[in-house]
Amino acid sequence: MNHIEKIAARLADFGLDAMLITSESGERYALGFHGEGLLLVTRDGAQYTTDGRYIEAAQEQVEGAQVLLITPDKGHMAFAKEYIEGKHLHNVGFESGAVTVDAHKRYTQALPCVLTPAQDLLGGLRASKDEGELVRMRRAQAITDEAFKAILNFIRPGMTEREIAARLVYELLSRGGERVSFNPIVAAGSNGSRPHAVPGDQMVEEGMFITMDFGCKVEGYCSDMTRTVALGQPTEEMEAVYAAVLAAQKAGINAARAGVTGREIDAAARRVLQEAGYGEYFSHGFGHSLGVDIHEAPSASAKETRPMPAGAVISAEPGVYLPGRFGVRIEDVLILGGTGCENITRSPKDLIVL
Fold first, then answer.
1. Lower CB density within 10 Å: C or N end of the chain?
2. Nearest to 157 by CA among 202, 212, 191, 194
């Protein structure tokens, strides 16, 4: 069953006649294609409209939907209105988590139907990855592992965070990544205490930790990985913090499986850091789902009370951040099953000293 068919099969459960999909990630999930278009999925068919920049690619790549070309005289709304009227569609769901107020106003004014918030329809489907999605994610993760191995041979004292980040992008794309999952994070020394530090002109020097968080996309699906390495011999305290974070990550991974809540997975890792005396310095959740987007639902965090579904793909990324001093984060990607999880990240996690 392709994703168009999966969406169509869920419409009745939500009391919908059709689903309107307009976001980049929704379009990519449904079609395996993004052309800044508009997709309507009904219980027995689908219509996709796009413009001249994408029409040839859409006609070649899109399956399961009629592909139509918009023109200056007949745009997305005109085609959608015609389709809705022709099929007598009344209740149409929309991506309430992605549609802006202004866009909703346009749709409401242009379309002869009731628009019903239905983000949970797509969100529920996207939470559990099928084998086709997992193939793409495994490939993206393998490229990310290869890029990490390469960057270890590139880093030298005197380089800036920005130079290392730029090299990571090169390594990811030159190995087959179609684009980065997000702008890489490279944080050296005291910048490492900021989980989402922006790479800048800070030079890496002997005695520093360097945290690198990066990933790429393959056919629209993300990878994600973080490693913290030492440039020169670390202090005993640095080694102790690293060991605590690694132990916490292993505890969270051991707890990660379908059927448990994100809160339980997070708690397993958080308990280790609290017992080691670093609990107050773990300032985010254990992990997040990823797929078409780098951050998806459900999350492996203290706020997540829903059971994790089989086929969920989550990050495993506890961290300790000592303000103004240094930070450590270690991140892998897991596929959840009923009895445990598969770790698709292959890079070593014992502390690497360059």
1. N
2. 202
Tens-place pLDDT, residues 26-57: 999 999 999 999 999 999 999 999 999 999 99
The tokens describing 43, both together, are 């219980």
Domains and CATH numbers, the chain: 3-127 (3.40.350.10), 131-343 (3.90.230.10)
CA distance 105 to 102: 5
pLDDT in tens, 269-297: 999 999 999 999 999 999 999 999 999 99
Contact 261, 305 (CB under 8 A): yes
89 CB contacts (<8 Å, ≥6 apart)? 17, 18, 42, 83, 113
Distance CA 289, CA 266 (A): 13
With a threshold of 0.90, does the pTM exceed it?
Answer: yes
At residue 186, what is the residue type?
Answer: V
Q: How far apart are CA 10 and CA 7, in angstroms?
A: 5
Q: Enumerate residues 6+ apart whose C-beta is below 8 A from 146.
A: 171, 175
Specify whether the CB–CB gap between 223 and 215 falls below 8 A. Answer: yes
CA of residue 119 relative to chain centroid, distance: 17
SS3 252: helix
Looking at residue 219, its amino acid is E
**Measured between alpha carbons, how far is 28 from 313 in angstroms, rounded to an integer?**
17
Model confidence pLDDT, tens digit, residues 88-133: 999 999 999 999 999 999 999 999 999 999 999 999 999 999 999 9
Cis peptide before 117, with omega less than 30 degrees from 0? no
Contact 57, 36 (CB under 8 A): no
